[in-house]
Amino acid sequence: MTSTPAAYLNVVRSGALTTVQDAGRPGWAHLGVGRSGALDAPAARLANRLVGNPPGAAVLETALTGCAVRPDRPVVAVVGGAGCPVRVDGRPVAWGEPVRVPAGAVLEAGPAVTGLRSYLAFAGGLEPDAVLGSRSADLLSGLGPAPLGAGDTVPLGDPAKRRGPAERCGPPAAAGPVPWPGAPVELVLPVHLGPRHDWFTAPALRTLLTADYRVSPHSNRIGLRTEGPALERSRTEELPSEGVVLGAIQVPPDGRPVVFLHDHPTTGGYPVVGVVAERALAGAAQAVPGTRLRFVRA
Fold first, then answer.
1. How much is the average pLDDT of 165-171?
2. Reported pTM
3. How far, in Å, CA of 258 to CA of 243, rounded?
4. CB of 169 within 8 A of CB of 53?
5. What proportion of the chain, given as a percentage, has pLDDT over 70?
6. Which residue, 231, 247, 229, 226, is CA-closest to 290?
7. Which end of the chain, N or C, is more open, meaning fewer C-beta atoms within 10 Å of its C-beta?
8. CA-CA distance, 144 to 213, in Å (whole number)?
9. In whole angstroms, how far apart are CA 131 and each of 25, 144, 293?
10. Within the chain, where are the H helices?
11. Bridge-partner residues for 276, per DSSP?
């Protein structure tokens, strides 16, 4: 019985930031390990569905300037998430739909036109070594595969492998255009106040829930930073470090809220004024710097 030879993606252009991401590694916070995973989880799941992968298969997440890769075997791929031009060996192909990439051809996701992060899914998924059950890169802890650079290779999974009747690999039958969510013109984040909202003045809480903020260009996979009015604290003593969760709104000394995203630390020493529900964070992944941002009471 012969085994299928290993296949790889070769990185031709890595762009501003390209990483391998899957559904992340939840459940390890007690050991100081964050969740990581695709920031726009619905986009990653949809891209996987379109190439016939399980929803949590590993994909490429690329930010702002896109990336280019060359598979060494034929593969079906989808580029989705942020809207961008897509080319195979320089020839324009469909964005957001399965395309066939011949062996040795270059698949390029161009710079984002709408949104911020594009997702490249490949039939069979990507298979770098898993760490604590996930293939995701965690930029804060350094777990998982390192951010990709030109010349790097990533193992491709075998689309012929069967994971069960409902999870066969290979693209599904064409069903017409897919309604990909658009990038937010205005980002509205519902907030559950606490656990440290009592460390802020009443006017500060009103400001949080009524003021206009903007997405800062200093945002990253760790947190969405904001530009706007500072929140005044009613208590100024030091807060012992305590656990923080995905979506926590931490307020550092400058008073500008920071919404923790998937590579956030598991503990922090600045007060958390509220928490944004995970389902609302996909929009934060696609909000470009300067996007208007409002926090509202959940």
1. 46
2. 0.93
3. 15
4. yes
5. 93
6. 226
7. N
8. 33
9. 9, 6, 35
10. 41-50, 202-210, 281-286
11. 191
In the predicted model, what is the mean pLDDT of residues 45-49? 97
Q: Who has greater pLDDT, 165 or 37?
A: 37
Average pLDDT over the chain, rounded to whole? 93
Question: Is residue 156 predicted with pLDDT exceeding 80?
Answer: yes
Q: pLDDT band at residue 171, thresholds of 50, 70 and 90?
A: low
Give the separation between CA 208 and CA 52, rounded to whole angstroms: 42
Nearest to 128 by CA among 263, 9, 262: 9
The SS3 of residue 16 is: coil
Burial class (CB in 10 A: 0-12, 13-18, 19+), 86: buried
Cα distances (angstroms) measured from residue 265 to each of 67, 138, 223 = 27, 10, 10
3-state secondary structure of 179: coil
Q: How far apart are CA 227 and CA 81, in angstroms?
A: 25
Vertex 16 angle, CA 50 and 115, to 5°: 50
Q: What is the pLDDT of residues 209-261, one digit of tens each?
A: 999 999 999 999 999 999 999 999 999 999 999 999 999 999 999 999 999 99
Pairwise CA distance, residues 39 & 34, whole Å: 13
Taking the C-alpha atoms of residue 175 and residue 173, their distance in angstroms, rounded to an integer, is: 6
